[in-house]
Write a structure and sequence with these properties.
- The complex is a heterodimer of chains A (163) and B (121).
- By secondary structure, chain A is an alpha+beta fold.
- Chain A has three helices and seven strands.
- The longest helix of chain A is centred in the middle third of the chain and has 23 residues, at 92-114.
- The radius of gyration of chain A is 15 Å and the shape is globular.
- The two termini of chain A are 13 Å apart.
- Chain B has a five-stranded parallel β-sheet, sandwiched between helices.
- The radius of gyration of chain B is 13 Å and the shape is globular.
- The mean pLDDT of chain B is 94.
- Classes of the chains: A alpha+beta (163), B alpha/beta (121).
- The A-B interface holds A 25-26, 29-31, 78, 81-83, 93-94, 97-98, 100-101, 104-105, 107-109, 111-112, 115, 119, 123-125 and B 8-12, 14-15, 18, 56, 58, 82-88, 103-107.
């Protein structure tokens, strides 16, 4: 569907594809993961997952992009981000900060990837959360399972439906 | 030389400092600030040779910091290390007086390529 100004409206599938592409760039680049695989899609992540979300807000639609995993998965992602040893102790504060930066980088990369198609998105600041995401009827949620090296995680997109 | 790293994320400040070392700039002293306001005070108190700043930060963001410095006539070398890599953001950064914009995710090779000419002058 085309939006009023002629730009192409982004579907939930578009958002998920862009987020996966951004995550692969990050995983193989800065995180130094030897492999990146994409698994199943769903409409929600496991309730035990925790992780970080960042908002992308635009005139033609808005979304929240999240990266979530088990608490051990988030600790492993945090260690990867900080180049720590796999068995090194990581504090909760450092884990939240590092996983928040992963969400931030995913948001920034997604913004760059969509900017030619839909310009003008603004990026928010990341927020680490624990708990089940409940969507309203104005929102739709998509999730993709990914494996970054040996770390299982889920990428989530909450898309605000067009008015 | 002294490099001031400005980022609200402690993790990212560590990563930038580590990447500077990996890129071969380990001889430079690295100092940190958590936001633009803190960085502005630090630059006024003891000017660094280069500022590496995030864009999105609470209190005072990176572009506000740069614009405030230039408005006051401060010509400190300034570059962004940020998730904001769109052409519009790059143009705004350069028009405001930044020397470069390194988009996250980055590699030591990117740091070396971009910072070598800046730190050599």
């Amino acid at each position: 569907m085309s939006a009023a100004n002629g730009t192409q409206e982004l579907t939930l599938q578009d958002w998920l594809q862009i987020t996966v592409q951004a995550c692969e760039e990050l995983a193989k680049g800065q995180l130094g993961c030897e492999s990146f695989t994409v698994g199943a899609t769903a409409t929600e992540a496991p309730v035990t997952d925790v992780g970080s979300y960042v908002a992308l807000v635009g005139d033609e639609g808005s979304a929240q992009i999240g990266v979530v995993a088990s608490i051990d998965g988030c600790r492993a992602l945090g260690r990867k981000m900080l180049c720590m040893e796999p068995d090194e102790e990581i504090t909760d504060a450092d884990m939240c900060d590092a996983v928040g930066e992963i969400a931030n980088i995913l948001g920034g990369s997604a913004k760059r990837l969509i900017s030619e198609r839909v310009p003008g998105f603004k990026l928010g600041l990341p927020l680490f959360m624990q708990g089940r995401l409940l969507a309203s009827d104005r929102q739709e949620v998509g999730m993709v399972a990914v494996k970054m090296g040996e770390i299982d995680a889920h990428l989530l997109v909450v898309r605000y439906k067009a008015q | 030389m002294k490099i001031l790293v400005v980022d609200d994320s402690k993790a990212m400040r560590k990563i930038v400092a580590r990447t500077l070392k990996q890129a071969g700039f380990e001889q430079h002293a690295v100092e940190e600030a958590e936001n633009g306001a803190q960085a502005f005070d630090a630059i006024k108190a003891a000017p660094p040779d280069l500022v590496l700043s995030d864009w999105n930060m609470p209190e005072m963001n990176g572009i506000e910091l740069l614009q405030k410095l230039r408005t006051e006539g401060n010509a400190v070398k300034f570059g962004f290390v940020t998730t904001e890599g769109t052409p519009e953001m790059r143009k705004l950064a350069m028009d405001s007086g930044a020397l470069f914009l390194i988009a996250k995710p980055f590699t030591p090779e990117t740091f070396q390529q971009v910072l070598q000419p800046v730190l050599a002058t």
